[in-house]
Predict the structure.
Amino acid sequence: MTTVRSRYSLVKKITRQNLTVLLVSMLLSFVLIAAVLWLTARDRQGSAAELAAVQLARNVSAMLVFNDPVEARRELTLLANQRALTDIALYDSQGKLFASVPGVAVAAFVPDTQALTTERSYQGLQIKISTPVLVKDKVEGVLYLSESLHQLMNWFIQGLAVMSVLMLLIYLLAARLLVKLQKQALSPLVELAALAERVAAERNFSLRAPVVNNDEIGSLTQGFNELLKRAEIWQSELSDQLQQESERGAELEHLALYDSLTALPNRHYFGQLLHQMVSDSVQHGQKSALLFIDLDNFKYVNDNFGHDAGDAVLVEVSKRILAVIRADDHLCRLGGDEFALLLPKQVTVAQTSQLCERLLAQIRAPLLIKNTPMPVSLSIGVALCPEHSHDVATLLQLADEAMYRAKRAGKNGYQIYQAG
């Protein structure tokens, strides 16, 4: 009985130590991965909310200038319907409430009418954003909104639950394999200890342990090689896990930068491309162009032919536009039926006009979805850099303004921005 207890006490002691180290390592890895994933997801949602706030600020600038709170309230309501907002309000240049959304709380907020940059902060499960409404670099008001992170937290908790189950299964399998290998690796030492105890108990010095070519060193070498083998197995499993995480990270990055329907750069990636284009234009002294493209009658298509037909129209329109632009031009989908086209290389007004005509001609050609013609066309607004502006926000505003002029001119056409 003494021999049995001694034999298995050594195995259990070392096994418990190894399982404890494995468990602590996996728990630490789990906590670190969860923290990184949460901070990354929160920052991406914050960036998306900030971009939406900046875009809304541009949209409502004219409403502040022309004192149109009704239209401003409509714009605020559109954003509130799209995002999980808990607070949203628009203040004028005097810091007074100009417009808010019925049914959405207005927090006690003191706007800073002197700030020229967007401010973002996190308070618990809330993203708070304050952005100035600029018109020609003059602050006309302040847009404030607060977005809830509860839905993101719910998704995050669900992901953690799945990851916890997977890590638990991995731990149980690893523990089972570890116990089995541990017994095999330690059996020579256990047998040697049992033999030593038998010799001491029986006082039988005739008992001998088989020795073949320095058996003690051979046993230690064999055990060491077994440990090395298990270390290689663990390293392989860890490498596979890291590879999967890397592939998942690349997939998430692609989803964050590209539109899932058209595979075009999305609004977030568009912002990066636009900043790069303006920077290159200013640095190298070459003209570039920003085209805002809006699909006319898209709501009619969705209402009368269904959203599947609307999606098919968006895909076909993007293919037709890509067919006539240069390889180094960038077509982006901003959302809904809005596209943006960046012409970063040297362009002229005449070249831009010719491109607009080609784009309009591409979409005027019959666009059939399930043998049914779709009554769509394009309205295009153009702003040139640095001719019209070398400021990103201003260039966006000017292209948007030109696009609405094209709309007002009867749609199915383009307008190049002209002051006044």
